[in-house]
Design brief:
heterodimer, A: 535 residues, alpha+beta, Porin, 2 domains, eight-stranded antiparallel β-barrel, two-stranded antiparallel ribbon, 16 strands, 26% helix, elongated, B: mainly alpha, Rna Polymerase Sigma Factor, Chain: A, Arc Repressor Mutant, subunit A, 10 helices
């Protein structure tokens, strides 16, 4: 038989060979270790499901708040408008203090008083004033009622049925307070302030002014009551074309976006109105009578963050209690030095309006180390030289030449950069202050390790460098690590923030396999920075 | 119990199945460990450690390959780690392949596996390992080079030397008589 065939036969037979072994003895020897593995797996499964459950719960809660919570309770202005729309019996004359600081209210009050004075002066000339009010934000426009308004319209639009001035009117005496005049969507009529007395505070509806029914432009917000569309500058009453059917006017209001003023003088008068106080779309903030549109903050704000960081690496090597790793520890500590740790990650964040926030994502972390060792290579050559010195019979020394071994030892230094690469899922909770542009926060959480790989070399007991990966020194999963960090965020635009975060991370367990004689643990202290994009 | 069921139960941590796995595969694994270990005590330690690693990493086993081959690979890698690489890292020149493949006497063809194993085991550790990896496990020189951290040329060189040495040993055993070869294992 030829050798290759023989070798092939050897290979097959050896592979198929089963040695005799006492399986019970083997099992008895490994049973404690197997129990330990089983317990560890159960524990890992429990931790996984715990985090999965927590993540699911927080996600569901965030989703519920985000999608099913229409508005905030406690926003009085908003509630008033909503209540008034929903409930026709709502008392629209109820005064409402505008949100904002008292100084603003005072300033607004002062301004309104000035306006009132000016208005009174003009009213002396013009005879009466007219005010148009639009409650923006609710899409409801409140204007003068018409005497021809039908009871039906009154029932659906309380402001139209001006039974008394105080019921539907707007108190202008306290500009910081305003009455919200609820009306049906898209309905328009005019509110006339019969202010012959020159007192603009009493903005009431006068049935005698019915003939001045008119339609207003769709967007009107005029804080001043110094206009008198009913009269021309000379004080003469304007002739405004009476709509043929005032009921119809009210009904058609929603479909007629342009003013139906036919008289040229009246048109001019209305133009004056617009000239005096240019209408700004949704210019509620200019109008002390109208509360600003409530700024609706969502219960949860979601954002994505991209961040990178660098950290000081604090490594701890220690021999296991049941091993003789002291020699190895000494060898490794002499030859290795931890360098910096870098990290890069993306996070999805959900922040509640209270400041509480949840974040999860994916992160890549690389722990860098340097491995340096002095190696020796020994070469043996044979050179021609004195091989023996022999004393002869005469007492002389003879020199015998021949091949003499010559040993050459070369010392060299080798340097490797070892890398431990971690793919992790960070899960964090935290709190962040609500500042205007700058906010500060604190975060804590865990990093769930998905995969760990290591490249590079370390010394073994025989002072020979071994490849970390091949030697199976590092675990493929190292479990959890804990995180604690502070953060400062600065808003660049409405949706974009930059943030920096000093942090500390602790790896409570060794990253080396249980069979390896040394435990290797890490602590990281670093700084991360990144951008956060809201959506 | 089928292999699939056994693996599933071991993944769940069912102890009876784990015991069954030990019973079923210990012989095969010990045979692998013996090929690489320096002595019987080391082989038994390696067997235990291999089984522990099998239970630790059984979740990672992909059913696309043979379960036995997967376990054998663990045993081999673990054995190599224990042996260290100093034996394999001495660069050697590749010897020229012999022109004529030597004939193996018929009497040795009929040798028992354990006797052949004894002959192989008498090779120096580096040669023995490369021979086992190549001739028995069927790894290529590239794979052997990666596993042992040596160059492909070194792997080829060591295999050639191992073959030569094994042939020498067979010749010697022929001189001393077949029975002497058989007595080695005792």
């Amino acid at each position: 038989m030829k050798w290759p065939l023989f070798e092939n036969k050897i290979g097959k037979e050896m592979q198929a060979h089963r040695a005799e072994v006492d399986a019970d003895a083997v099992w008895a020897a490994i049973e404690p270790a197997v129990d330990k593995i089983n317990n560890k797996k159960k524990k890992r499964r429990f931790v996984f499901w715990l985090f999965f459950g927590a993540l699911l719960l927080s996600g569901t809660t965030a989703g519920y708040w985000y999608f099913f919570r229409p508005a905030f309770p406690g926003d009085t202005a908003n509630d008033q408008i909503v209540n008034a729309i929903v409930d026709p019996a709502y008392n629209g004359s109820e005064t409402h203090t505008l949100p904002g600081d008292p100084s603003q209210s005072e300033a607004a009050e002062k301004k309104a008083e000035d306006d009132n004075k000016a208005s009174s002066q003009r009213a002396d000339v013009a005879g009466h004033t007219q005010q148009k009010v639009q409650a923006s934000g609710s899409g409801v426009q409140s204007v003068r009622h018409s005497a021809t308004a039908t009871p039906e319209s009154a029932s659906t639009a309380p402001s139209k049925t001006a039974q008394s001035g105080s019921n539907n009117g707007v108190k202008t005496g306290h500009p910081a307070t305003a009455t919200v005049l609820p009306l049906q969507d898209d309905s328009r009529s005019t509110v006339s302030n019969n202010n012959h007395s020159g007192n603009p505070k009493a903005l009431s509806v006068d049935p005698d002014q019915n003939q001045e029914t008119r339609l207003l432009p769709p967007i009107v917000a005029e804080p001043n009551t110094d206009v008198n569309p009913g009269r021309d500058p000379s004080g003469e009453p304007l002739t405004i074309a009476e709509p043929e059917n005032t009921d119809e006017t009210a009904e058609n209001a929603s479909t007629a976006p342009e003013p139906s003023v036919t008289d040229s003088a009246a048109t001019g008068s209305i133009a004056d109105v617009h000239d005096d106080t240019p209408a700004t779309p949704n210019s509620d903030e200019n109008n002390p009578l109208i509360p600003p549109a409530p700024v609706q903050r969502k219960a949860w704000q979601f954002s994505a963050a991209l961040q990178g960081g660098i950290a000081f690496t604090d490594r701890k090597l220690e021999p296991r209690a049941d091993s003789h790793g002291t020699d190895l520890l000494s060898l490794r500590e002499k030859t290795e030095r931890p360098l910096e740790t870098t990290q890069l990650g993306v996070m999805l964040e959900a922040r509640h309006r209270s400041g509480f926030e949840l974040a999860a994502g994916l992160q890549y972390t690389r722990i860098n180390e340097r491995f340096q060792y002095l190696g020796e290579s020994v070469e043996t050559d044979t050179v021609y030289g004195i091989q023996f010195l022999v004393r002869n019979l005469y007492g002389e020394i003879d020199t015998i030449f021949g091949g003499v071994p010559l040993k050459r030892t070369t010392t060299f230094r080798k340097e490797y950069y070892n890398h431990i690469n971690l793919i992790e899922i960070p899960i964090m909770v935290g709190y962040r202050t609500s500042g205007s542009d700058l906010s500060f926060g604190v975060r804590a959480g865990v990093f769930l390790n998905l995969k760990t790989t290591a490249t590079g070399q370390v010394l073994d007991y025989a002072s020979a460098p071994v490849n970390i990966e091949d030697a199976g020194i590092i675990k493929t999963r190292i479990g959890l690590s804990y995180y604690l960090g502070l953060s400062a965020s600065y808003k660049i635009t409405d949706n974009l923030e930059i943030h920096v975060s000093p942090f500390a991370r602790l790896f409570p367990k060794s990253i080396t396999e249980d069979s390896y004689d040394l435990r290797q643990k890490y602590r990281l202290y670093g700084l991360s920075a990144g951008v956060r994009l809201g959506f | 119990m089928t292999e699939k069921q056994l693996i599933q139960d071991c993944r769940k941590g069912v102890k009876s199945s784990q015991y069954l796995l030990v019973q079923r595969y210990s012989g095969m694994l010990l045979s692998v460990c013996r090929r690489y270990a320096r002595d019987e005590a080391m082989a038994r330690d390696l067997l235990q450690e291999t089984l522990i690693r099998v239970f630790t990493h059984i979740d990672k086993y992909q059913p696309t390959g043979s379960f036995e081959a997967w376990m054998r690979q663990i045993a081999i890698r673990r054995s190599l780690q224990w042996l260290g690489k100093v034996h394999f890292q001495q660069e050697q020149q590749v010897d020229a392949l012999p022109d004529n493949e030597p004939e193996v006497p018929e009497v040795y063809v009929r040798m028992e596996v354990e006797e052949i194993m004894q002959l192989v085991h008498s090779l120096p550790p580096g040669f023995r390992t490369v021979f086992n990896l190549s001739a028995v496990e069927g790894y290529s020189h590239q794979e052997i080079a990666e596993m042992l951290g040596i160059s492909e040329n070194t792997s080829r060189s060591q295999l050639m030397r191992a073959r030569k040495m094994l042939q020498e040993k067979i010749r010697e055993s022929k001189k001393n008589g077949y029975h002497e070869v058989a007595s080695i294992r005792k």
